[in-house]
Amino acid sequence: DSGVTQTPKHLITATGQRVTLRCSPRSGDLSVYWYQQSLDQGLQFLIQYYNGEERAKGNILERFSAQQFPDLHSELNLSSLELGDSALYFCASSPLGQHHGYTFGSGTRLTVV
Amino acid sequence: LAKTTQPISMDSYEGQEVNITCSHNNIATNDYITWYQQFPSQGPRFIIQGYKTKVTNEVASLFIPADRKSSTLSLPRVSLSDTAVYYCLVGDKNDYKLSFGAGTTVTVRA
Fold first, then answer.
1. B75 forms bridges with which residues in the sheet?
2. Contact A48 B103 (CB under 8 A)
3. Is residue A48 within 8 Å of A31, Cβ to Cβ?
4. How confident is the model at residue B1 (pLDDT cuts 50, 70, 90)?
5. Of B63, B89, B92, B96, nearest in space to B3 by CA
6. What's the CA gap between B50 and B61, in Å, rounded?
7. Which residues of B touch A56 (CB under 8 A)?
8. Which of B96, B97, B100, B104 to probe the A interface (max A CBs under 10 A)?
9. Which of A90, B13, B20, B90 is the least crowded, having the fewest Cβ atoms under 10 Å away?
């Protein structure tokens, strides 16, 4: 157990639908990062939050959004889902946004049918 | 972020030492070199990080030459459970956009 909790572990939904992925960071970590990993794209950085505020944005689609709540858990919202959004979505956390302190969760596998 | 180049795949046998070299010609003064390990359907796991010379922990060693344009991750006496993808990342400690490349798939055979 890495200390980063992601729910649900698996999600199957239809095209056009909206889903929410949840991440609870490791205790004490203020930064949360979201990544998408698909077979043909590798591990892609989506977005980072630090203590409730958006800190950095990567290759995140406009159909995707995220937020970090006062208790530091984060949610990634994916809407108007397409078949190509099927992937593993990972959340990672770190203290103070430092590079070497990233701890990843076990991911949510999203399948869009 | 400095671009990194590492082999796509490597094969080894149990008990051997595996060395994965990563090239990062454009590494900046403030950049650190970090390696992660990822098993199928699991999130990446931090292995080791260094700035220069040699760093060793209970899992691996990281060798960094003086010019820092490359680095080598050394896994001593690998076992079947070391079969995984290994990622080399280079960036400033405060760089938030941690970008993973394709990594090196290491396959350990009995």
1. B18
2. no
3. yes
4. low
5. B89
6. 10
7. 96-97
8. B96
9. B13
